[in-house]
Amino acid sequence: MRHRLLFLVAAALGLLQSAPARAAPLFESDDVLRSVLTAPLSQVYDQRNIESPPYLPGTWAYTAADGSIVRLDLQVRTRGRFRRERCDYLPLQLNFRKSQVKNTLFAKQDKLKLVVPCERSRSFTQYVVLEYLAYRILQTLTPVSFDVRPIRLSFNDADRKNRTWTHYTFVIEDEDAMAKRNGMRIAKIGAADSEELDPAATALAEVFQLMIGNTDYSTIRGPEGTVCCHNMRLLAPKEGGGGLIPVPYDFDASGLVNAPYSAPADTAPVRSVRQRYFTGRCKPERYWWDAVQHISAKREEIYELFATNEELSDHSRKRNLRYMHDFYELIDDPAKVRKLIIDRCRGQIVHD
Predict the structure, then answer these.
(1) CA angle (198, 204, 208) in 5-degree steps
(2) Which terminus of the chain faces fewer neighbouring Cβ atoms within 10 Å, N or C?
(3) Sorting pLDDT into bands at 50, 70 and 90, what band is 6?
(4) In terms of DSSP H, where are the helices of 79-156?
(5) Res. 20 pLDDT band, cuts 50 70 90
(6) Is pLDDT at 195 greater than 50 in this prediction?
(7) Residue 306 near residue 255, CB atoms below 8 Å
(8) d(Cα 280, Cα 210) in Å, to the nearest integer?
(9) From CA 141, how far away is CA 10, in angstroms rounded?
């Protein structure tokens, strides 16, 4: 069980006027939940080339705290675009019945994104663990982030009897639930101007992306016809007033994960995702220093995430603790912060 001092983060960075509501039951623990998904999975995966695939019926079973087996009806479909063309196993969208999940661990849940390994191998399992840790790092930095829960999930293909397999996976909180938890709403806009963004929250998000070696995002634009922004969701205050807050997600293209199919953004002049390159947009420099100072103060908590995660291999743990250490060496040096962050920002400074 994790205990979060949410109001301290909010007060320090000016992200929220009040502390977010308590997490839903599913996300109150970081323990790995054992579950079974039964569905016509062969049919689900056959729909990988359909832009908006239909939901197919299935069941979800998990072991409750008292040892009883709880079974829930749900619908499932593939999601995402990039991995449909490259992966054997696809990320899924889970759609639970609201009326059925009452008084269960999945209370308040409706739609959840399920992240699975692209292929069935130890290395691809490690990529999923590392992407999960990227979400946990962001949670450590700010409550305005997506909740996640690790799940050791057994897949039972109802189309092919006796065909089962098990993956380490995790689910991601629904975006509307995340916004509501933080007393905000999703900004349904196609694009944003830099001056519309909350500078403190945006600086934190952008330095976090540097920390994990991610250039595959935008705080102001998204693919044509989609809600802004690319691998970001913008939150707006319900009552108006205050800037939009960007919330990062989808980190499998980051240097931290270092998946074999990942590559830096075309605009980043580096060859490997393990090479950090800052792509944040310009703003008054005090916001960069505040973000760096806040992330620096969270160093030991972030190291602890890697040190205590039992799913990480020893090799991956050591390698990525070094990767984190390299980042902290960068932000410990004011000259490097100025050269590699402040002086490298994109666009014109937006004055507040």
Answers:
(1) 145
(2) N
(3) very low
(4) 122-141
(5) low
(6) yes
(7) no
(8) 9
(9) 10
- In angstroms, the first-to-last Cα distance of the chain is 39
Question: Over the Cα atoms of the chain, what is R_g?
Answer: 20
Lowest-pLDDT range of 5-14, 158-167, 175-184, 282-291: 5-14
Question: What's the token pair of residue 154?
Answer: 């057994």
Enter the tokens of residue 58.
């299935």
By CB atoms closer than 10 A (0-12, 13-18, 19+), residue 154 is: middle
DSSP 20: P
Q: Which residue has the tokens 């399920």?
A: 114
Phi, psi of 146 (to 5 degrees): -80, 135
| Cβ proximity of 42 and 160 under 8 Å | yes
pTM score: 0.93
Residues 6+ apart with CB under 8 A from 268: 215, 277, 279
**CA 89, CA 77: separation in Å to the nearest integer?**
12
Contact (Cβ atoms closer than 8 angstroms) between residue 213 and residue 251: no
Distance CA 56, CA 58 (A): 7
What is d(CA 238, CA 164) in angstroms, rounded to the nearest whole number?
A: 45
**For 114-153, b where at least 16 C-beta lie within 10 A, e where not — what string?**
bbbbbeeeeebbbbbbbbbbbbbbbbbbbbbbbbbbbbeb
